[in-house]
Amino acid sequence: AACTQFLATKNFKTSKDGLMERVIRWDDKEACANLGGLCDECKSSLFQVTSLVMSIVSMVPTMASNCQRTTRFGDVNCQATMGVVSSLFSFATSLFPLLVFRESCYIAFEKASDVSSFKIGLGFQLLLAATSFKLFNAVCHW
Q1: Of 20, 24, 22, 57, whose CA–CA distance to 42 is shortest?
Q2: pTM of the prediction?
Q3: H-only helix segments in 37-107
């Protein structure tokens, strides 16, 4: 009971499954007041966005290699090499921003916060799954 009252003072609410949870919006200035600038560091990591755009653009030659290699005439070594190189480049430019986000946002918030556990959201999990498919595509071109 004392624990529930303490968490209620910090804007936690009881969820359907009996867990105490709190939703914090990214644009809530007061939510970041006690975190010493971590919110601003996380928000300002624009390299993540640039790198993800590069990852999406670099999938174009990968898809072209995939299509080219489906024909007997087009399945040549240069297309295989292009497929591997472009897939690995796309994999790296997709994985790096995920790791940067995990370190600068997720892990940093977990260390600085008084909350006992954080969960990585569905969006992060789906991006990680899509990134792993890029590595699988490179292996298939090998």
Answers
A1: 24
A2: 0.63
A3: 38-43, 47-57, 59-68, 77-101
